Amino acid sequence: MKAIRFLNECGDFTMEQPENYSYLYFPIAGENKIKSSITPNLGGDSKIDQNTFLLEPVSVENLHNNRSSRNFWCMVEGVGNWSVTGQSAEEEYKKFTKEQDKSRLFAGFMWHRIERISSKYQLEAKVTSFVPLDYNLEVMQVEICNKSEEKQTITPIAAIPIYGRSADNIRDHRHVTSLLHRISTNKSGVLVKPTLSFDERGHQQNKMIYYVCGVTGEGENPTSFYPIVDDYLGEGGSFTNPLAIREDIEGIAAEESFEGKEALGGIRFQKITLEPKQKVSYTILIGATTDSKKIEQAMLSFQTKEKVEDALQKVKEYYQEKVNVKYHTSDENYDHYLRWISFQPILRRMYGCSFLPYHDYGKGGRGWRDLWQDCLALLIMNPSGVRDMIVSNFGGVRMDGTNATIIGNKQGEFVADRNNITRVWMDHGFWPFLTTKLYIDQTGDIEILNEKVPYFKDKQILRGTSQDEIWDDSYGMKQKCLDGSIYYGSVLEHLLLQNLTAFYEVGEHNHIRMRGADWNDALDMAEQKGESVAFTCAYAGNFKDLANYLREYKKMLKVDTIVLSKEIVMLLNCSKELYENPIEKQKLLQVYGQICKHTISGSLVNIAIKEIIDDLESKANWMMEHIKTSEWVEDSLGHGWFNGYYDNHGRQVEGVFDKNVRMMLTGQVFAIMSGTAQKEQIKAICKSADTYLYQKDIGGYRLNTNFYEEKFDLGRMFGFAYGEKENGAVFSHMTVMYANALYKQGFVKEGFQALQSLADTAMDFNTSKMYPGIPEYFNDVGRGMYPYLTGAASWYMLTMITQVFGVRGEMGDLIIEPKLLKEQFDQEGIASISLTFSERQFEISFYNPMHLTYGSYRIERAVCNETILFDNSNGKACLSKKELQKLGTSLHKIDVFLTKISKAECK
Q: Which ranges carry the Glycosyl hydrolase 94 catalytic domain (predicted)?
């Protein structure tokens, strides 16, 4: 029997005894900024941001160490005290024995339910947790059922510790900040309003009210409260064996107040006698607000069981609609996992890269890459509004081609680097074009390139190597011209600037310098002499693609020139003599940086588009040829791959060193994806990766071989244990990008192996020990680590849709070019996908009755709504943007019929 069993096509799932597995947690969050994590025993935390934690912040090790949790007790007259969440000393003692409570988890997008039955207490409890759509709070609904044949009298008590301060205070002034607490009780619960907040912002007057309030399912208020932790626990007591429960101590009344104590949302309800099979329910609200009236409004909105259930149903429907992509392959279980993978980008948008137990780094928000990569999934699921998001994001680019690394809370808001810490990631300039390109293809809106956007400005200049000493806050955060006006450049200009400046910032081997790191943040110790061949490939691919899209721009908009800032023109230089000379390239970039270090002229120049295309392609061809001739390495067996890096001593990183093979996946991914690697080289790379990096039972392709060296001249990753995180783990993000690159180049079986190995490991709960989805990485024994918040989910979803099913846009046209293998079709030879394209919902079905595999079939015909025939050319089916616009907004069915390729066609 599978540990996780799906219940329906929505992806709802169940599992038994989830508390018997370590490190499990589940996300529940809302659009109003509240972000929670919840464990099978209702541990975890809840917060709005770094400085506003409702419940005590937790890291993953706290999940089995902490006794503090969302708890709910039933004091059963004549029997004892039962924790319906399993958080009691008694239940901990019985764990893993035949006397352990029977528990079962049920969960779906943004809702979580634990059902628990106690043989001793003859009670059944259902605890449902979710964040409603309209309130900044977490709902915890508890339903108790008497399973006995006799009447039972119970006294229900909720006990939820209220942390109420910044995450900084978990160690920094933990006791002192409790002295700031002003605690009060009202008719429904416990409220905490600290006088001040102590955090990195300094001492500030606090306006936030943290609260835990409760009501019965019939709208009756509690009878008394336990607002103080010490009083509730008693001397020597604990949250799993508290004095108030042990000795049945009555709580205090409403309208009382206290100061300077650790607070508890302790709520005691009226004693009740349950008939056999009778049920009773209670609703607990855990929230934070600056407006006390909203607490009263919330209590009215969730006053009855029916209102809570209605709110839960709205949450379920809302997120099912958000995840508007559905898959049908030969493996129903895999289809459900794909739904969860498609849900993960929504979670990343809400949580950023923080605020879940494994993601205990950072202080919230998203980084530069996240802004762009999360847009990839949004373009597939919810493209409305993405245009504005993309345009706004370009406002984070500096005039020197670098970008802001601190992202504001609002769209398009960027702030100066925290504490003026200067750091440049050399890959940052690569990602914006990748996302913009997908947007243009999905929509045909090439005019987005003409949108005018300001440039970001702060103290950092010369690509992070110096500071603008005359810049201050009065200048503002936007680049200015000599006359004091804000300069606005086109999106196209921003893209050209990011890529061109990277081209000139090279090391002694004439590849782009590493700087702070590339995509792999743990390659962070090669600032002086490190070079990333991997992302030099990536930028070369950008140059090629930018040239191609400029051709489309020229043709579609019927223009021959574009307007650029006068300063940028000097970066357009087709001199191969310059390309070959790293020192001269550095000098040119330095001159450019000096010209625009404070203000720019504001003068504009018309440049012929053909001239720019020639320049971009000249640079791309030179970069690719340079890499192919200088970075291909081989072992004694004839295996070959590309060296991806140079360390801080200027030494090539990959190859064979004293019989030890050093190979990293990243360099192969971008060599393939960019088109730098030729067909025979891709074959060799695949063979090498399968030999040195592939380990199926832990998820597939490791990020690197074991270097057997701490290698502090390249990055901190080599200080990690091998097989963990960036040092040799199966890192999902790069594995999925490897698959994507292989699919794009026609290496379908190889790409399928990379994708499927990840999925197989994730779906094998006995190995991965994680809820559905794809983790950041699998460790050395295959456990899924850092679940939910990973850019790999966007890439996995994108690869499945645009490459595997082959449904994608090309300049706004809908293209269908399947790359499905025969094992991906069901028994009847059918595979299908439902998705939104051009604001219209499509269900696209592929019919393969002969059970052919990719490479042996072609599209025979494709029909839309039984009437519209597709133009079938080059093995693709196409529905033009013009024809798309004629379709209504109802669901449209497309049937794609596959037939065998003839011998003549093969030739």
A: 324-459, 614-806
The tens digit of pLDDT for each residue in 32-41 reads 889 999 999 9
Q: What percent of the chain has pLDDT over 70?
A: 98
Report helix, strand or coil for 41: coil
Residue 17 placed within a domain: yes
Q: Which of 432-436, 599-603, 837-841 has the lowest mean pLDDT?
A: 837-841
**pLDDT, tens only, 254-302:** 999 999 999 999 999 999 999 999 999 999 999 999 999 999 999 999 9
131 in the same domain as 225: yes
What span, in angstroms and rounded, lies between the C-alpha atoms of 278 and 276? 5
- How much is the pLDDT for 197? 86
Which DSSP category does 223 fall into? S
Judgement on whether residues 812 and 776 belong to the same structural domain of the protein:
no
Max CA separation in the chain (angstroms): 93
Q: Assess whether pLDDT exceeds 70 at residue 24.
A: yes
Q: What is the pTM of this model?
A: 0.96
Strand blocks (E) in 314-384: 326-328
- Provide the residue range defining the domain that includes 658: 640-791
Three-state secondary-structure class, residue 87:
coil
pLDDT digits (tens, 9 = 90+) for 714-731: 999 999 999 999 999 999
The dihedrals phi and psi of 524, each to the nearest 5 degrees, come to: -120, 20
Q: CA 72 to CA 266: how far, in whole Å? A: 9
What b/e sequence results for 430-443 when a residue is b if at least 16 CB atoms lie within 10 Å of its CB, and e otherwise? bbbbbbbbbbbbbb
Identify whether the C-beta of residue 132 lies closer than 8 Å to the C-beta of residue 272: no
Number of compact structural domains in the chain: 3
Q: Is residue 402 part of a domain?
A: no
| Claim to verify: residue 785 and residue 832 sit in the same structural domain | no
**Residue whose structure tokens are 């003692």:** 93
